[in-house]
């Protein structure tokens, strides 16, 4: 199999590529608490995690797996999908790990909620400041790749 990357041909590839069946959605919900932006993260258990849990975006799922029943959907998915206007700080399609996944894309979003959104969260969710997230970025295997991709997008919001 020959793969063309940036007008260069790669004559061999020793790692199999996985073709995706559907697009993903990854989103952080952001809330200003006491004047400081906080990101809602979730502790997520996934196959292949080095440790048992990693910190993931508020919403991380495949769009083809969204149940029709709202009560069966991942927490906060509807809030993210129904957000609009000034709530949406960032919304783009981004490639997912091109060395492993063939043409896989995620819809990456940052969605801001207002003061009426509750501070109390479900069990696996927590509010974290950007400073706290940066502390976890210093170590491998604490923040998953989707979280890292979304945090990298913050440089483009200024």
Automatic annotation (TrEMBL):
This is NDP-hexose 2,3-dehydratase. Signal peptide: none annotated. Residues 2-154 form the dTDP-4-dehydro-6-deoxy-alpha-D-glucopyranose 2,3-dehydratase domain. It comes from Bacteroides cellulosilyticus. One of its GO terms (molecular function) is lyase activity. It comes from the Bacteria. The lineage of its organism: Bacteria, Pseudomonadati, Bacteroidota, Bacteroidia, Bacteroidales. Pfam families: Hexose_dehydrat.
């Amino acid at each position: 199999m020959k793969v063309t990357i940036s007008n260069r041909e790669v004559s061999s590839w020793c790692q199999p590529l996985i073709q995706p069946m559907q697009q993903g959605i990854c989103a952080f919900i952001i809330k200003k608490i006491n004047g400081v932006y906080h990101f809602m993260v979730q502790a997520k258990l996934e196959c292949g995690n080095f440790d048992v849990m990693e910190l993931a975006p508020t919403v991380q799922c495949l769009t083809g797996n969204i149940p029709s029943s709202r009560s069966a959907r991942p927490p906060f998915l509807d809030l993210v999908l129904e957000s609009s206007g000034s709530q949406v700080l960032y919304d783009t399609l981004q490639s997912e790990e091109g060395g492993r996944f063939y043409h896989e894309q995620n819809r990456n979003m940052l969605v801001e909620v207002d003061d009426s959104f509750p501070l109390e969260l479900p069990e696996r969710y927590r509010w974290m400041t950007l400073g706290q997230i940066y502390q976890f970025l210093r170590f491998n295997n604490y923040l998953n790749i989707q979280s890292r991709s979304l945090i990298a997008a913050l440089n483009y919001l200024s």
